[in-house]
Amino acid sequence: MQPLFSRILRTSFLTSALVFSLSSFALDDTAKVAKLKPLEIQSKTAVEIVDQLSKHHYRKQELNDSLSSRFLDEYLKTLDSSKNIFIASDIAEFDKYRKTFDDDFKAGKLNNGFAIYSRFGDRYVARLNRVIAMLDDKKVQFTFDTDETYNPDRKNASWPANPEEADKLWLQNIKASLLSSMLSGKSLEESRTNLRKRFTTQLRYFNQQTSEEVFSLIMNSLTTLFDPHTNYLSPDTSQNFTTSMTNKFEGIGAELKTDEDYTKVARLIPASPAEKQGQLKPNDKIVGVAQGEKGEFEDIIGWRLTDVVKKIKGPKGTIVRLEVIAADPTITQHKIISIKRDTIELEEQKAKKAILNVKNGGQTLKLGVIDIPVFYGNFDPNSSVGRDVYRLLQELRQENIDGIILDLRENGGGSLPEAATLTNLFVDPGPVVQIRQADDVISRDVRASVPAVYRGPLIVLINRFSASASEIFAGAIQDYGRGLVVGSTTWGKGSVQSYMPINKGEGNIKITQAKFYRISGDSTQHRGVIPDIELPSLIDTKELGESSYDNALPWDQIRAAPHDVYNNIKDVLPVLKPAHQERMKTDPEFVYLKQQAALYEELNNKKTVSLKLAVRQQEQQQIEQRTLDIENQKRKAKGETVYANYADYKAKELKKDDEESAAPKKKEFEPEKDPYLVETGKILGDFILQTKKQIAQKTATP
Q1: What is the mean pLDDT of the chain?
Q2: Where residue 660 falls among pLDDT bands split at 50, 70, 90?
Q3: Residue in 541, 533, 558, 412 with CA at minimum distance from that of residue 473
């Protein structure tokens, strides 16, 4: 589902003040625009989509008056999530449709959905024309000295009671957007010009909307009520999806999503140009795109995701520059990130190994670390995760390693058979995962089938971006008691989708038909895999992960599958956790991370922002000082030179960014430089020592 253009002016640090009223630019708020009407073929497609949902979706929901009511709310949210286009009288008028959509869609009737869209279009176009006229009027003056606050989050707000209240909201939005731009370093006139360009572009794109796009909005407002991974793909979208599923990726390697007006980074593809370059991060908001080193930035706030992707994609070897609002709330100015497009080398996504030496109990342990970026198995007939990790285990065994760390951080999944094969390297024959279909039939056919290859000490390292097949593997290792799971709670993607053609070429429907369950009977859906020992993270789980989606399938349980348990991990955790927590108290890197996380949470929980320039500047200085203090505390603890002021710190960071941008390189696998791997190695050392003690105690017991 793609959001529409009503989500226009929300920015991270919003502010400013104005000395006029939009009523000065009165235009007819119901000025009529070109009407789009449903096509006959779309009526037939709607009937088939409803039929497929009814027959095949895992979540058995009847399309009735209740679901019709939810559809209306979802559709209005899709069109106007910021609640600043429609007014209360529109919403009251639409209520007459509330319990009719179920019957309409079953009969292929789309007129009411298109009628709501038409009203939205009338108000939206009129609103943009008024704002553009205001920005064009040189008599309009802006000041930034009024004590006023603004809440950019209107998800739970009411629609404006009347046009005058809507005017007030828009004035606040415009003030906020202008001041946000100024705080990022632009002048008032530059900000005003750029804002005018933004609205002009949005108006142009809106006027290019087609009946197919409106139909997709309507259908996806319905499919998302079943779960967030069930979508209707129009013929054009289906073609783009097919292209994206090939093994050759050319671009920057960032998966993008929409969040109201913004294009957000969902995750970075391992070994991609964006990951190698190092500056773009998950949850960053991309607000501008420029081509080449000198191209002019285009403001993309409010754009369709497909149009943003077209701007960012491009031929190998060319440069794209991104203007980004950092997910890190302590970065108060927009970042400019330059990335050279390239073909993503799938060879670089293959599993690789390294040695990590860890001191423990008066001795140095040699640990093998295997990094698995993705569960591959189809792009090289001679290579797969299972084959490659088997070979790496044999090589590590020749080096007399004391234990293994499998690093599944950022691993978004891939081949389910490969997840089973990987599990089989560490456990003897038995089930790996349970799959329950929509008809409640449960299968346990995905199994380990041969004796284990490696039986020594093992840790699986995970984080929020470990998903799908990664969760199946980590969950199996945890349920078998085969090793420790360390890190942070995984994504929680435990559902299975299939693609079905719709109405003889009129697109496809991606539909959820099954759920994954661990052999313990716990679902991986929604909850994810919870580590035995948790490491601190800066990721806000309310923003990223399955649990952040509306209508996500819930976590639940089924009967456990019979399986062996190799170790009672719970017996050793009372020893391992306190030792880990003691290290966390003094480790400079993790003390730094915890302080950063606390500051992030404080800033992200702030609901309103000031619309006064002096207040915002003071807040910005306070954030910069706290950021500097946290950084210097870490540097002092590590014996490094501290920064004299924030400007010195920022200059060093910019220099580092410029160096990374100029020469992005293959990401080296150096476990000793990764604090997460170093601490995981220490946990594994404690685990090995504790296991030896348990064996000795059992041997000494008569």
Answers
A1: 87
A2: low
A3: 412
CA of residue 535 relative to chain centroid, distance: 20
CA distance 367 to 46: 57
pTM assigned to the model:
0.87
Asked if CATH classification 3.90.226.10 holds for the domain at 346-567, the reply, yes or no, is yes
Q: How confident is the model at residue 559 (pLDDT cuts 50, 70, 90)?
A: very high
CA pair distance 75, 91, nearest whole angstrom: 12
Residue 238's pLDDT is: 64
In the chain, where are the structural domains located? 17-226, 249-343, 346-567
Alpha-carbon span 448 to 423, nearest angstrom: 7
**Superfamily designation of domain 249-343:** PDZ domain (2.30.42.10)
CA 88 to centroid of chain Cα atoms = 33
- For a pLDDT cut of 70, what percent of the chain falls above it? 89
At residue 62 the predicted structure's pLDDT band, cuts being 50, 70 and 90, is very high
Give the Cα separation of 585 and 409 in Å (integer).
Answer: 24
Measured from the Cβ of residue 523, the count of other Cβ atoms closer than 10 Å reads 24
Q: Which of 73, 114, 79 is nearest to 3 (CA)?
A: 79
**Residues carrying an active site annotation:** 468, 479, 493
In terms of phi and psi (left: phi > 0; alpha: psi -120 to 50; beta: otherwise), the region of 586 is: alpha
Contact 129, 203 (CB under 8 A): yes
- How remote is the C-alpha of 141 from its chain's centroid? 39
